[in-house]
Amino acid sequence: MTTMSEAPVLRPRVAARTGLYVFLGANVAVVTALFAAAGPSGNALITIGRLAGLYGALVMAFQLLLVARIPWLDRRLGMDRLTSWHRWTGFGLLWTLLGHLVFIVFGYAQVENNGPVDELVEMANTLDGILRAIVAFALILVIGGTSARFARKRMAYETWHFIHLYTYAAVVLAFSHQIALGQSFTSSPFAQAYWWTLWGVALGAVLLGRVVLPLWRNLRHQLRVVAVVPESPDVVSVYMSGKRLNELPARAGQFFLWRFLTRERWFQANPFSLSAAPDGKTLRLTAKALGEGSASLRNLKVGTRVFAEGPYGAFTTLQQTRSNALLVAGGVGVTPIRALLEEIKGHVVVIYRVGSSRDAVLLHELHGLARARGARVHVLTGPSQVSGPYGPLLGPASLLKLAPDLNDRDVFVCGPPGMTNAVLASLRELSVPRQQVHAERFSLAG
User: Fold this and answer.
1) Which of 240, 325, 329, 426 would you call most buried, defined as having the most Cβ atoms within 10 angstroms of its Cβ?
2) Which CATH number fits domain 317-439: 3.40.50.150, 3.90.960.10, 3.40.50.80, 3.40.190.10?
3) Which residues form the FAD-binding FR-type domain (predicted)?
4) CATH architecture of 222-312
């Protein structure tokens, strides 16, 4: 009989990651074969440019899949990890498309004995699809620039999201350019079928994951606010109910993008994790007033309609590999930890890091759950620089004191970035296996 400590051959996260690698690798092989079958150009620069363009088209389709919010991938990898990969492949997309543009223009300029700028102007005026490709590249540059960290931090999510909608215009323009001038696209019926299928799957996944599924779930479940409960002067819990919630595939530790359909808030989507395990009757979020969106939750009226996108996230017991667990929460990051405490298997140790005892939101619920299931709860208070008898409160020695069998536990961490990074650094120093460490940042893409 297999026990929890005997990890399955292929963990969910590994299975999803391997599937993505295989998918990308197989398509790279197909694209390379199509390029070879179409034959090289008489000019080396043009040949390199065409190959860069094909890889750029493939990376663009792969990027769409990463942010399509496909439930199977999201439950195993998490939106934060998929978004991070989307961002890094974006750099690859920029370089491949830039290489495509530069090598093609310089190659044709060499063939025509023309200057590169004059050649680009001539190509835009005489070749079908070139102008569309230039516009697509300009859009991708703008979108990439707004995704840079320094720009993203200075921009409201709604503004950033609106700009990113132009990604779909760039995709359509780039694909129409490929149809018009792509040598490997027109080289055979198989090549055409392949590219149409690839783009159909990518765009279809986006349509399904980001439009059809959210609309269907909200029409099916029809969420409404049933209670608004202050937990402290700056923390509030919102309870929601609806139809057939027992059929909603939500798990403890996951989050939704919530839109409360009032005149002031309907256009704002805020990510809040569930602060209680779904019971098939109600959903609950608990939020601290950190911004305008979370502060206004206190003023919600009972009966307010709710549009929820999700559930999202891989911060669930699906990732559990060992019989016991350590849950580490910081501040309001306790909300998914509190939900996990209801559902996670085995003996559990909870570490709750807060500035002071009055910041310990939902502490009475943690203690109640701990008593019911024989778990231990440790509340660590004090400024971020404070040290205990074993050094930093979340340092290696302190973690080992609170959970001596740490290396034989799954560790779930949720809190502010600084705290999360400190815990992850301590776990690395203690050589806790990576597959036993689970941390997820609950935020909108980007």
Assistant:
1) 329
2) 3.40.50.80
3) 218-318
4) Beta Barrel (2.40)
